[in-house]
Automatic annotation (TrEMBL):
One of its GO terms (cellular component) is membrane. Keywords: Glycosyltransferase, Transferase. The lineage of its organism: Bacteria, Pseudomonadati, Bacteroidota, Flavobacteriia, Flavobacteriales. One of its GO terms (molecular function) is galactoside 2-alpha-L-fucosyltransferase activity. PANTHER family: GALACTOSIDE 2-L-FUCOSYLTRANSFERASE (PTHR11927), L-FUCOSYLTRANSFERASE (PTHR11927:SF9). This is Alpha-1,2-fucosyltransferase.
Length: 275
């Protein structure tokens, strides 16, 4: 059995789930989802119930059973902090009666082998608002480009404050050299700032009808655009990875964080264009 301990926002939860799901499929074992962190963690909510996920939630075993499992050494704990943030191929070969995973696992190599199964599990099943359905029709009928700007809590942490203006200028120029008549669908947790700071020379549609409680609807819309310009955000990373357009263009920031505190060399897939 694989038990994944979820933490962070929706993008982080998707990385954690996909990694654990792929490992469970590889070893033909059950997956259980531990969402107990969200009982006390107030910054984000558990968000996977919006998807086509059939794996059950983890229920903590009775104390008597826990003692037996401990005595027989039936539990194994894998904490990403002990191995660094780079992709670790050793995880694929981890086996145990109960394997507990704790980490962010932000690399597609953990689950790319099972892409079709992950895509199926991450289909959104929660109802969409009428305006979301209407926007989806528009997205499917034009040369749509999802452009995501992450601000919010990133403004409070210098490590996230990369040179965003230069990145978006280069990314949009690149898209316009490859795509005829692109229409940019603008997503952000600060959409008023985006309206004020992006040039009106571009054709833009501002998505201003979703918030944190309906962020899965933003993922639905962004992943259905023909192309993606993502932010240094796991949330927009997933909107691009879930894009099934075989001719998609995806751009990503070359510098995910400021400084050398974290090594996220493996985070951006090789086929994505980095600026």
């Amino acid at each position: 059995m694989i038990i994944i301990k979820l933490k962070g926002g929706l993008g982080n939860q998707l990385f954690q789930y996909a990694t654990a799901k792929a490992l469970a499929l590889r070893h033909n074992t059950m997956l259980r989802i531990d969402h107990s962190n969200f009982e006390t963690y107030k910054l984000h909510d558990y968000g996977l119930y919006h998807f086509n996920i059939t794996d059950q939630l983890y229920k903590k075993e009775p104390k008597w059973l826990a003692k037996i499992e401990k005595k027989l050494k039936l539990k194994t704990f894998y904490n990403e902090d002990d191995h660094g943030f780079r992709y670790n191929n050793e995880l694929k070969h981890q086996k145990a009666y109960k394997l507990f995973l704790d980490g962010y696992f932000q690399c597609e190599d953990y689950f790319l082998e099972y892409r079709q199964e992950i895509l199926e599990a991450l289909k959104i099943t929660s109802p969409l608002k009428p305006i979301t359905k209407q926007t989806l029709e528009t997205i499917n009928s034009c040369s749509s480009v999802a452009l995501h700007v992450r601000r919010g809590d990133y403004l409070l942490h210098d490590v996230h404050n990369t040179d965003k203006a230069a990145y978006y200028d280069k990314a949009m120029s690149y898209i316009e050299s490859k795509v005829e008549n692109p229409i940019y669908f603008m997503f952000s947790d600060d959409i008023d700032w985006v309206k004020e700071n992006f040039s009106s020379k571009h054709q833009m549609v501002f998505i201003d009808f979703n918030d944190a409680s309906t962020n899965y609807e933003d993922i639905k819309l962004m992943s259905n655009c023909k192309h993606n310009i993502i932010a240094n955000s796991s949330f927009s990373w997933w909107s691009a990875w879930l894009n099934t357009n075989p001719e998609k263009i995806i751009t990503a920031p070359k510098h995910w964080f400021n400084g050398d505190m974290y090594d996220f060399t493996d985070l951006v897939p090789k086929s994505w264009i980095k600026f």
